[in-house]
Amino acid sequence: MTTTLITGGTVVTATGRSKADVLIDGETIVAVVAPGSQLLGTDLPAGVDTVIDATGKYVIPGGIDAHTHMELPFGGTAASDTFETGTRAAAWGGTTTIIDFAVQTYGQRVFDGLATWHQKAAGNCAIDYAFHQIIGDVNADSLQAMDGLLAEGVSSFKLFMAYPGVFYSDDAQILRAMQKSAETGLMTMMHAENGPAIDVLVEQLLAQGKTDPYYHGVARAWQMEEEATHRAIMIANLTGAPLYVVHVSAKQAVEQLAAARDNGQNVFGETCPQYLYLSLEENLGAPGFEGAKWVCSTPLRSRAEGHQDHMWQSLRTNDIQMVSTDHCPFCMKGQKDLGLGNFSKIPNGIGSVEHRMDLLYQGVVNGRISLERWVEITSTTPARMFGLYGKKGVIQPGADGDIVIYDPNGHTSIGMGKTHHMNMDHSAWEGYEIDGHVDTVLSRGKVVIDHNEYLGAKGDGQFVKRGLSQYLI
Ligand code: URP
Ligand code: ZN
Ligand code: ZN
Ligand code: ZN
C-alpha cells in the first residue's frame, strides 16, 4: 500500500479551517494533525511514499455531485457524456463522487432499470459513483421493489411531476410512493413542475409561432414550479415522507421550502450553478438558436425578477442546502438542433459536472458564501443527505482519501480548448473566469489530477453503496 502525505496546507471542512497535514495509507485517511506535531510534520515518518506540498493551498474533501445524468436517454437522443467521459471531467473539476440517476422507464421493472445503470457504469468510471433510482412507473410492482432498494445501496428515488408521457407521476402515484418513502426512510426526490399545465402553455406558444428557445423559459413559468413544490410539500407533510426538491430555480419555490422547514417539516432543496449565474434574458434569450445551449428544466429564470440573487442568499441562510449540477449534456449539432423551429423538442440539459467546484468557489471570492460553506454545500451536506458521510464529505481518519488541493492564487479560464473535458461541442460556461484552481485531486488515495495532468483511469471508480440520509428524523 502506498502512503501519501499532504503537508503545509489549510484543511477546510464544513465547520472550520486549520493548518494540518493529512496522511493517507492506501485508500484511507489515517491521520490529520497539526504541522510539527510528533506524528507528522517537519520530521516525516519513515515509509511515506509520496509527499505533496500544499503550502498556500486549501485541502478540502473531494466534491460530491449528487445529481448527474450520464448517458440519459432523453428527447430521442441520449446525454452525450458516458460514465467514462463524464466522470473523467468530474475529476478534472475536483469532484470525486457522483450520484447518477438509474432509470426505470414506463412499463419496465425497477430492478431491470437499476441493472441497466450498473452495466453502463461498471468498469468505466474514473471516480466513485452511486445511484438514485428514478421511478418512472409507480405501480404495485414498483412499490414492492422499493422495499429492496436500500439493500442495493440505493437510498433515494426520484419522481417527476413534469414530463407527462415520459417519466410522469400523478398525485395518486406520488401519494403512494411517498407513503413508501415514509415507511422505508428512502428519500423522495422531486422534480417539481406542473407538467400537464406546462404542456398546455407549450402548445399555445407554438401555435402563436413562438418557437425560439426563449419560450421554453416562458412556458415553464415560475408559478408552475411554486405550485408543484407546494403540492409535493403538502403530500410529504401528509405522509411523513422526507422530501428533497431537485434543481430549484424559482425564488417562490425556495419560499415554499423555507416555510415548510420553518414549520418543522423534513424537506430540503438543491440548486444548481446555472440557477446562480445564468438567466432567461441573457442565456435562453440569446440571438437565434444559441439559447438552446441553456435549455434545461427547471428553466433559467429572469434576472430582473431577482431569482439568482435570492438563490445565493438562500445558500447562506440554509433555505437551500446544497448544490449539484444536474449534469445532462447534449451537443448543439445532432442533439440540441432537434428543436430547431420547436423549442419543446430541444433535449433538456446543461453540462456542468466539471465546473461546479470552481463556480461555487467564485461565490467565495465574490463574498457570496464563506469558504466553509463552500465545502459544506458541495461535499459535506451531499454526503450527509444521501448516506455517504464518514467515508465521504469529510477529512478525518477512516474517511476515503478523496481530497482536492485547491489553489486560491491559481486561475481557471473555462471554455472550449481551455478547461473542457466533457463530451460536448460547446460549453454552457464559455468565458467564465475563476480566481482559483483545482491543483491536485486524489480519489481513494490515488492522485488522479496532478497540475493539469490526468493520471486516473477508467475503472478506478467503484460503486458505493449508500445508507439512509443522515437528515432523517
Ligand atoms: O433539464 C434537465 N434537468 N434534464 C435532466 C432531467 C431532469 O429533469 O433532471
Ligand atoms: Zn428533473
Ligand atoms: Zn436531473
Ligand atoms: Zn498549482
TrEMBL record:
NCBIfam families: D-hydantoinase. Its EC number is 3.5.2.2. Belongs to the metallo-dependent hydrolases superfamily. Hydantoinase/dihydropyrimidinase family. It is an enzyme of class 3 (hydrolase). GO terms for cellular component: cytosol. This is Dihydropyrimidinase. GO terms for molecular function: dihydropyrimidinase activity; metal ion binding. Residues 58-448 form the Amidohydrolase-related domain. Carbamylation allows a single lysine to coordinate two divalent metal cations. Pfam families: Amidohydro_1. Keywords: Hydrolase, Metal-binding. The modification N6-carboxylysine is found at K158. InterPro entries: Amidohydro-rel (IPR006680), Hydantoinase/dihydroPyrase (IPR011778), Metal-dep_hydrolase_composite (IPR011059), Metal_Hydrolase (IPR032466), Metallo-dep_Hydrolases_sf (IPR050378). Its cofactor is Zn(2+).
